[in-house]
Amino acid sequence: MRCLIHHNRISWIRWSVFAFLLISGHIFSPVPGFSEEPAGRLDFLLPAPDKADHRQYLGLPPDQPFSLGQVKARVVIVEIFSMYCPVCQREAEKVNAVFRLIQSRPGLKDKVKLIGIGAGNSAYEVDFFREKYSIEFPLFSDTDFSIHKKIGEVRTPHFFCLSLEGNNRFSVFYSGTGVIETPEAFLDILLKDSGIQVTP
Amino acid sequence: MKTTGIVFLGISILFFGFPGTCFCKSMAFGNKIFDPGPLKPVDSVLKIKIGDTAPDFTLTSITGSEVRLSSYIGRKNVMLSFIPAAWTPVCSDQWPGYNIAEEIFRRYDTILIGISTDPLPTLFAWTRDIGGLWFDVVSDFWPHGAVSETYGVLRSNGTAERAIILIDKKGVIRFIHVGDINLRPDLGMLVREMEKLNP
Questions:
Q1: Could you give the 3-state DSSP secondary structure of residue A92?
Q2: d(Cα B60, Cα B114) in Å, to the nearest integer?
Q3: pLDDT of residue B87
Q4: Are residues A70 and A18 in the same domain?
Q5: How far apart are CA B26 and CA B37, in angstroms?
Q6: How far apart are CA B20 and CA B183, in angstroms?
Q7: What gap in Å lies between CA A142 and CA B126, rounded to an integer?
Q8: Do residues A35 and A25 both lie within one domain?
Q9: DSSP per residue over B79-119, as a string?
Q10: How confident is the model at residue B106 (pLDDT cuts 50, 70, 90)?
Q11: How many cross-chain Cβ pairs, A to B, lie less than 8 Å apart?
Q12: What CATH number does residue B107 fall under?
């Protein structure tokens, strides 16, 4: 009887510790390639963009979901936005300016790619946001918040910057919520942190 | 020992919250948003149905003007957007979306009226923090929730449901959506319903 009680006691302790770790999130080990950003569990798949020019921009084949590590670039900037977020609305023009800045520099446009993910936004809402602000870079819908949840329910707008290391591996070298002071300064800081050498 | 385990589990939940809560908070409101956590999805019984004449009401808007529903008969379709409360996560990310969609409502000759059981000063301060809204925002605070109650969207705690009611130019209810209070209704759904009124 004593043995049984002892066994039950150990079992309860084990279950309690397991529950604690599960709830606190400590039981999930970081995904390989994400050592610098614990919340940056960016190992999700996105659908291939509908538009051919967006697939070409990202260097992707048609009709196949892709992971961020497959994007043909050295650095990928991911904006987490929402059509419903007033700050994202106000910042849309600045993010467009970052995109135009990248595209205007010949030594940069093939190395740095920009995408947006609409947290909790349906395909309709993402399309509406795209048209409203004349956004040229690819935007993706995260209707059910599944990606938003996976990346740590960040507030919007939030930017992740990934350094691609080949073989579908990457590391996160920047993660931040907030507004862009100036597109030029934002890009310069990211380039500096990424280690990319830009030919003037 | 079971008690110890349960207490330990309780403490864990207290510190780290229930997994599964998922609101997308914009940084627009700083730390001023009150998060009540997941709520009972629907907590009222509708008193209207499609085909009914919409119950008329007159409520005061945050501009101080009176908004009378029947004044739009023969002129505009009307979409009523009931929300539970200002300064809460989903509501604070709902009307700002409609705020950039004014041209869609204009295209379908539809007026949008936002309704909450919050008092006027609260709605005034909150919408100012949003940055202003192009549509009327009215308070159903006193007699408390009377309009929400008439429509059958008043919850047991005195807040309104997250509900959309679309009324045509004859004053007839053409669409009702009382959704999960924890989720925002899709703008695409609202547009499709407005399209039906303007074939």
A1: helix
A2: 11
A3: 86
A4: no
A5: 16
A6: 13
A7: 27
A8: no
A9: EEEE-S-TTSHHHHTTHHHHHT-HHHHHHTTEEEEEEESS-
A10: very high
A11: 103
A12: 3.40.30.10
Q: What is the pTM of this model?
A: 0.81
- Are residues A80 and A128 both part of a single domain? yes
d(CA A102, CA A95): 11
Q: Which of chain A's residues have a Cβ under 8 Å away from the Cβ of B5?
A: 12-13, 15-16, 19
ipTM of the shown complex:
0.81
Beta strand pairing status for A112-119 and A139-142? Answer: parallel
- Contact call for B188 and A8, based on CB within 8 A: no
Question: Which residues of chain B are within 8 Å of residue A89 when distances are taken between CB atoms?
Answer: 96, 100
**Rounded to whole angstroms, how far apart are CA atoms B108 and B87?**
30
Residues A94 and A3 in one domain: no
Number of domains in chain A: 2
Domain encompassing residue A25: 1-29
Amino acid identity for residue B67 in this structure: V
> Do A195 and A161 contact (CB within 8 A), yes or no?
no
